[in-house]
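Dear support,

I submitted the protein below through the web form. The confirmation email said the job was done, but the results page showed an empty box. After a refresh the structure appeared. I'm attaching both so you can tell me whether what I see now is the final result or a partial one.
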Amino acid sequence: MKTAPNHVVGITYTLTEKGSADIIEQVRKEDPFVFLLGSGNLLEAFETNITDLAIGDSFDFTLEADQAYGEVDENAIVNVPVDVFIVNGKFMEDLVQVGKPVRLQDQNGNPLIGTVLERGIEQIKIDFNHPMAGKALHFKGEVVSVRPATAEELDHGHAHGPGGHHH
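What the results page shows now:
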């Protein structure tokens, strides 16, 4: 059976940035990445490169930044007033650490996750770009399982069971 839309696929892989040997993420056979192909939950170019492979087939491809998480948008790097991080008169020191993610909401209440770049006396510089923005991603791995999705998985838009979503 080959990977195709509306199939639950399990893969192992090593993710590096193009041209680097430093591993960003590694998924092994003991705990494969399991997903519903064609559900729109993954990068389109990633799914294209995985489609039409059989169990045991290997893959080795690179997604350029524009196929992955896009280029870095300088407009997504903003200065946020320090008073946003003051609760009950106290600055949330443990929450605002350079290099760490911070969760905020926009004016409409939508959640935002950014990375703290700098802490100033009056402002905190936060990067709301995806952490992989501007990077070409290299995936190397193998397909370890393929099966047709159940009606419930198709209805929910994700894989269930081992390696997938649990309700």
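Response: this is the final, complete result; the empty box was a page-load delay. The two ends are 27 Å apart (CA to CA).
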